[in-house]
Design brief:
Elements: E1 3-7, H1 11-23, E2 27-31, H2 37-44, E3 48-52, H3 60-69, E4 77-82, H4 86-96, E5 100-103, H5 107-126, H6 132-135
Parallel strand pairs: 1-2, 1-3, 3-4, 4-5
Helix pairs in contact: 1-5, 3-4
Amino acid sequence: MIRVLVIDDDDIAREAMCAILVKAGYYVFELATPIGATSVIKRDGITAVALDINMPTINGDKLAKLLRENAQLANLGIVLVSSCDIEQLSALGEKVGADGIVSKSKLHVALAPAIERAVAARAAKAAPSSSSSSSSMPPFSGPPSTRRPR
């Protein structure tokens, strides 16, 4: 089962993301601050994280970069979530090695598919013997589609 950690300092946004992901069938954990995220990820076997960009203690893009640089978390899917401009969010995602991005205005249609794609992208990287088209995908796939792939 996919285990997702949602990190957002905004209670309403965090609750909305959690509700969307639970409804999609994921096992969801949440933090209001990025402090302790690495411990939760390791302790609870987190498969993917959904990170808000703008947080007071450390921005989500900086946390994503730290997570991506941690060799023990190489298989962790990372999705950046923000209400900022989509081009800016896309550039940040590419810069930090995120697996996807989601605009907060599109949470209900885009979050669960973005998490699914992030987990699939990381699984493909972990299994290089799988089809060459999957393993040659870049780490960032750009703005998510509005349909859930099957």
